[in-house]
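Hello,

Our lab assistant flagged a job as stuck in the queue for most of the afternoon. It eventually completed. Since we weren't sure the result was trustworthy after the delay, we are filing this so someone can double-check. Below is the sequence as submitted and the structure that was eventually returned. Let us know if re-running is recommended.
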Amino acid sequence: MNPKVLIFDSEAPFYARELTARLPEAEYLATNDPDEAVALAPGAKVIIGLAPFIPEPAISAAKGLDWVQALTTGIDNLLTNPDLKGVALTNCSGIHGPQMSELAILSMMALARDFPTILANQQAGVWDRRKQSLLMGKTLCIIGLGAIAETLARVARPFGMQITGVSDGRAEVPGFDRIYRRADLPRAMAEADFTVVLVPYGPATHHIVGPEAIAAMKPGGYLVNLSRGGCVDEDALLAALTEGRIGGASLDVFAQEPLPADSPFWHAPRCIVTPHIGGFSDTYHEQALPVVEARMSEYLSGGVAALKHRLDRE
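-- returned structure --
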């Protein structure tokens, strides 16, 4: 009997159609309705979906589940779900380089050119010409040197930027002018005009950008956080913004999400807030499909044991 695969996503029909055409050895059930997902879950051997949005009751109802394929990189909620003990987990790491890099470039240009003020002047009917700061000749420091960082370095280089990185795992990375150890992070940020945070979040990276690193930034330095809110000490950052000690910040992630309406970051000076959209794209389902297809092909050929890139819960 063909294994039953539950796909929970707004693009679930797309995945089901494409996988059926390419790998018909499984039965694909598509839905974006939580109640329907729970009804379809019994007997499912595989669940595919965006990790934070897969309904927990559907996971609980899928007795005998073999594997969950997350359409996201982050799987924090899956790692802590007791119903997934012993269940294989894979994700879509490596597909987010284009959209994350474009948001990083957008954030840097908007900060450098003070674009929020330009938009406010437009609404107020104010014609205020001012000098425009360029990315050319500036130093970009990237904290965390994974696939996204490599893509960002390739995208930023044509703007004429110098690229440095911070990592304890990689001493040399193509496209980077210099790599610093994490112990030297304050020095790296002191030399940077822009710092982009891309490091994964965990105990070792909690508040990796802390008071010392923020205090080391240039008065005109900018911080862009696209990783997780917990990687940055938000109290220290807010104080630096409020006191005018740094040039500004663009934040796509926060320790508490959604960002509360009374959060001071909404109105902090020289601060751009975006609602955790860095990994989004209008072609996300097309980007994720090759990863899902590859993992599904492995599973159909040899079960869980054949899955590559299984995530280690440790």
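-- support follow-up --
The delay was a queue issue, not a problem with the job. The result is valid. Residues 201 and 300 are 32 Å apart (CA to CA). The longest strand covers residues 4-8.
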